[in-house]
Amino acid sequence: MPPPKDVVKIAIQMVGAIPQLIELQQTKPLASVLKDVCDAWSLPNAERYALQYADGRQTYITESNRRDIKNGSILRLTTSPDQEAEQLYMGIQSKNVDVKTDSLKKLASLSQDITFAQEFISRNGLKQIYSIVEEGNDTGEMLAHTLKAFTELMEHDFVSWENLSTVFIKKIVSYVNMNAVDASIQQLSLSILENMVPTSRLLFEVVKKEVTLDRLLTHLQTTNAQLQLKAMALLIALLLSATDAERQDMMDYLREKNIRQFIHKNIIHSSEPLGDEMAHYLYVLQSVSLNLCEHRMKMSMDPYSQEQRDLLQSLRQTAFESEGEVAAGTFSTERRRSLCAKEFRKLGFLNNSNPAEDLRRAPPGLLALDNMVYFSRNTPNAYSRFVLENSSREDKHECPFARSSIQLTLILCEILHIGEPCSETAQAFYPMFFGQDHFFEELFCICIQLVNKTWKEMRATQEDFDKVMQVVREQITRTLNLRPTSLELFKTRVNALNYSEILKLRQTERLHQEETLAVPVLELREKLKPELLELIRQQRLLHLCEGTLFRKISSRRRQDKLWYCRLSPNHKVLHYGDVEEGVQSPPIESLPEKIPVADMKMLLVGKECPHTKEKSSGKQNKDVLELAFSIVHDVEEYCLNFVAPTRYEFCLWTDGLNVLLGKEMTSERTQTDLDVLLSMELKLRLLDLENVCIPDEPPPIPKPPSNLNFCYDFSQAEQ
């Protein structure tokens, strides 16, 4: 008798027949299983039939995926993929409009299945789809089904996008560029072009030439949210596939068209909530825009470049023009050089005789010079006040403008991740980025004045430079974490977070740490831990019961497809299945796939996961590695693969799954939550001991009294 894992109990349905309940032996060839099923219903020609799931995506059962069948699964006997492909291949060529429309509609649905897609493509079915599009006779619903079927068939990567004809591409482009076209057709056309762009340089150039940025901006400004999303997706695909020079030109053009202000007003602050997909695209647009600074950031100053020397001299001239620039014309060369060196020293350059040396370090390279020049030209009063105020202070207490600017530029580059590749899953963008042109430069202007303010508050000297910049980094980071919606709000909040506030925050954190290090408190912490860990376990399981929306990500592009996973209320079964965009919390009954918790063997994370091994190990996939986890179930060959939308979700899911497996919770979030709960509980327990010094050792127990005659005698009092 085969082991239990090789036998699954399932139901098989067929229209007009009583369902069969069978024990499917996984070691038995599928053709033999089909013959037995057909014989039970007296059906001839078993090779014309196939099994598929009755619910969900209705995937065909094959030898390669039959191990995914679980106990209790409901299958359906249906026409085999090759027979279905042949019928639909003939149907889409029919002269009867209704037959053709129904065939294309069914084709669009079945094309999601890889087995059917393979059969249809092998019959040169894509050629017929090309013909329908290229001839251009069909419109409306029929065309929408055709484009949907094409998209699904191409998703399986059996055919290269480079095989598409010029006529086909131009037809797709025409649907994007025409006004009098149904929105669903434009959405599908934009999606097809988005898929084309990353596959080859030639296709990128064709799409970039045929679909103008003006046309994409028109779609972005529509009220149709899905059309807006697809237009943004194509714009991002073009930006990511462009060369540095092309990307710069595109971003310059978008800046001219005030795309940031439109996004800030009509997308970020729209009445409709921002979806995950759009949030990701806005993050990428922000990242691409900020990474335009990378070239200057990595370029050291060339002391022989006249243009760069002129920029450097302009800093000195703007600050000290009124201090004898005219009189300097009468000085000798040596005297003029000495005067320049003195002024560069007042500007805060370490090497005042050759200030270009200060800018040889890359990063921040020439980006620091650009920021200083921008500050001096766009806020000349603030610039002059900064320089002159510090040049009149004592030598020890002057805040060096140039040195501070160079270090501040480096800090901003690190905080904003300039020069780092875009994450495939991140959605964290700064709303204020889209509300301001020249965002990086304007942010620098606010922060360099913050440096001067903090320097004075700290009464710093040159020896305190690193301490000041550390405080400034903390001020900027803490304020950015508040997600201010505009630079003005950022300026207000960062200036309110002065040095004394930073000291208070640090002192609070330090006191909290010190009071929790006393021996009696540590003992109390250990006593409270088991109870609080159980509370965290319950919270993790509750989160799994609520479920999470995950995205399917391939190495080719960020996928639009979504799937949902949640734990049953009794904590015995994981339910999952594909869902449509916009579905927030599907009922557990609508998720067709399931994994019994008893069948779960182990949890894999990061590089151990099978779906991360399939990907390249480049920098761009670093974020995927950090968010990937897999559940191994039944036997080790079968895994359910996840890529969490955020690090927070990753921690909660891996913790919850470890609880189900009877293992310790290992995520960093567990420790953070435990620390917060312990802190709250300790504060409540120690409330009555405020301002009381807790000794390291318990006080000694006094000796017992020599007699116990001090006890009150109640019997005598009653008499």
UniProtKB/TrEMBL annotation:
<feature type="domain" description="ELMO">
    <location>
        <begin position="307"/>
        <end position="480"/>
    </location>
</feature>
<dbReference type="InterPro" id="IPR006816">
    <property type="entry name" value="ELMO_dom"/>
</dbReference>
<dbReference type="Pfam" id="PF16457">
    <property type="entry name" value="PH_12"/>
</dbReference>
<dbReference type="GO" id="GO:0006909">
    <property type="term" value="P:phagocytosis"/>
</dbReference>
<dbReference type="Pfam" id="PF04727">
    <property type="entry name" value="ELMO_CED12"/>
</dbReference>
<dbReference type="InterPro" id="IPR011993">
    <property type="entry name" value="PH-like_dom_sf"/>
</dbReference>
<dbReference type="GO" id="GO:0006915">
    <property type="term" value="P:apoptotic process"/>
</dbReference>
<keyword id="KW-0729">SH3-binding</keyword>
<dbReference type="GO" id="GO:0007015">
    <property type="term" value="P:actin filament organization"/>
</dbReference>
<dbReference type="GO" id="GO:0017124">
    <property type="term" value="F:SH3 domain binding"/>
</dbReference>
<protein>
    <submittedName>
        <fullName>ELMO3 protein</fullName>
    </submittedName>
</protein>
<keyword id="KW-0581">Phagocytosis</keyword>
<keyword id="KW-0053">Apoptosis</keyword>
<dbReference type="InterPro" id="IPR050868">
    <property type="entry name" value="ELMO_domain-containing"/>
</dbReference>
<dbReference type="Pfam" id="PF11841">
    <property type="entry name" value="ELMO_ARM"/>
</dbReference>
<dbReference type="InterPro" id="IPR024574">
    <property type="entry name" value="ELMO_ARM"/>
</dbReference>
<dbReference type="InterPro" id="IPR001849">
    <property type="entry name" value="PH_domain"/>
</dbReference>
<dbReference type="GO" id="GO:0048870">
    <property type="term" value="P:cell motility"/>
</dbReference>
<comment type="function">
    <text>Involved in cytoskeletal rearrangements required for phagocytosis of apoptotic cells and cell motility. Acts in association with DOCK1 and CRK. Was initially proposed to be required in complex with DOCK1 to activate Rac Rho small GTPases. May enhance the guanine nucleotide exchange factor (GEF) activity of DOCK1.</text>
</comment>
<dbReference type="InterPro" id="IPR016024">
    <property type="entry name" value="ARM-type_fold"/>
</dbReference>
<dbReference type="InterPro" id="IPR011989">
    <property type="entry name" value="ARM-like"/>
</dbReference>
